[in-house]
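Class, study these two lines:
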Amino acid sequence: MYGKAFAPEYRGALGALSVNSSLEDVLEQALEQRRRAELSGSALESAHAGLAVAEASRRLGRVEEADQAWKASYRAARQAEDEGAMAWAVWSGGTLARQRGDLALARRWLATAAELAERGGDIVARGYSLAGLAETGRIQGDYEAVGELHEKLLAEARRRGEARHTVWALEGIAQMHRNTGSYDSALALFEEAAEIAGKADDARGRAWALRGIADVLSVRGDTERALELLSEAEVTCQEMRLASALAYNHKMRGNVLFRAARYEEARACYSGALEEFRAMGEPRGEALSRLGLVKSRAQLGRDLAETAADLDGLHVTLGRIGLLHARDMVDKARAELGIVAAGTVPTG
């Protein structure tokens, strides 16, 4: 049995905040609590509040504010000599680095966070940090290296009855199955994640699971059901002001429409998602939206040589970020559009 989902990143005086709390509300309360903590001279409470500021800002797409906040949280935690609080701050920094596309830095900080958590005896911070390392490797497409870690973290989360972490692990494993063509197992895992998240009142986790279900259903040709699920998830993202999740939802809507050969609608979705990702400085989402946009424009009649040049540029960009799976997607797009090699247009 799983208990109700909780948000361990909301700590100290903010510990009563729900995992489903509006991020604008979290940010407002966290800023006020940090001000109070600084006035009272409580370094540990300042660290806790700063962590909440960092996480709310990151999820709202305010990356500069998030960067300043996690570093301030770490300094306060170090002043308080609390390695657990230091671990949470560095975990936030590593998660932000991944969101900003600096995957090497993300791995370094998340590994540091796991070490701090182990020394500080904070088992939850350690779990989140290892989960962050696993997710970073998964995003890069290094499934062999992180598949076992995902499974281990899933087993630990199930054993402790931690719904939110179980949902995260299920979604990560499901995504790897989906990307390697194991659609039946991917769908079953996404559906289990959605069910657990729903019962645990984890709205954010359920929204991500619905996105995964929609993706698999779309691949199988069930376009309308996929769009319905994305609309349901979008409501949650809007209510909680989940800027990054909302942008990925819009990008996925573009994917669904593209697969259904509704290219003009797909183009509009990819264009909107691209602007959202650019606004929050998220290069991974930006590059993936650009890829969808290039493919949509090609299907709408854009010059093939211009398309080839764009795909060449995306191949370089995705390689620089370290997204191995996404680079494979560019190669697949070349084949689909009749571009046999980088910069080469077939002549006959």
Observations:
- Confidence is low (pLDDT under 50) at residues 342-348.
- The two ends are 61 Å apart (CA to CA).
- Residues 160 and 185 are 24 Å apart (CA to CA).
